[in-house]
Amino acid sequence: MDKQTLIKALNDDLSYELQAVLAYTRWSAEVSGPHRDSLRAMFQREIPDELMHAQFLTDKIVIYGGTPEMKPAAIPNASSNRDKLKAVLDMEAQAIKNYSQRAQQAEELNETGLKVRLEEMVNDETEHYETIQMLLRDWNESV
Ligand SMILES: [Fe+2]
Ligand SMILES: [Fe+2]
């Protein structure tokens, strides 16, 4: 892994953070039914974390001499509340996997500061994942 490959990978990560910001904003508007208030609040609570991750990745790409592409990945299709939560669970699981791998690559390049921040992001995404996991636990009705 060289710096150019790392910049490309960070741009991919950035596209998923922007996707999360847009998806959570959209889904906070679309959630419906008796659980609307709590689901809307949950989506809105996670948006600032994802924005902070996007800003961090954008800063690092520029510092490493790259160009931040700012192209969000497409928002997954999810019509029901439950489908939205399952889509989020997948997105957070992917983020945990990607940042764990990226932290190892940062270590290989002796970028200790980047590695530490990426590990903190693994922690943030794990907390998001566990929040959604608990919401989905024993949720059998279609609401
Ligand atoms: Fe994130
Ligand atoms: Fe997240």
Which descriptors apply to this entry?
0% strand, 143 residues, Ferritin, binds fe (ii) ion, mainly alpha
Provide the helix percentage: over 70%
Main sheet summary: none
Superfamily (CATH H level) name: Ferritin, core subunit, four-helix bundle
CATH domain fold name: Ferritin
Strand content: under 5%
Uncertain segments = none
Whole-number radius of gyration?
A: 16 Å
Q: What general form does the structure show? A: elongated
Task: Kindly report the average pLDDT value.
Answer: 96
DSSP strand tally: 0
Number of domains: 1
Based on secondary structure, the structural category is mainly alpha
Describe the 3D structure.
The chain is 76% helix and 0% strand. The model has no long low-confidence stretch (mean pLDDT 96). The protein has helices at 3-30, 36-63, 81-108, 112-136. The chain starts with a helix and ends in a 7-residue tail after the last helix. The protein has a single domain (3-136), classed as Ferritin. It has 4 helices and no strands. 27% of the residues are buried. The longest helix is centred in the N-terminal third of the chain and has 28 residues, at 3-30. The protein is an all-alpha fold. One fe (ii) ion binds at residues 17, 20, 49-50, 53, 95, 125. One fe (ii) ion is lined by residues 20, 46, 50, 92, 95, 125, 128.
Layout of SSEs?
Elements: H1 3-30, H2 36-63, H3 81-108, H4 112-136
In short:
With 143 residues, the protein is mainly alpha-helical.
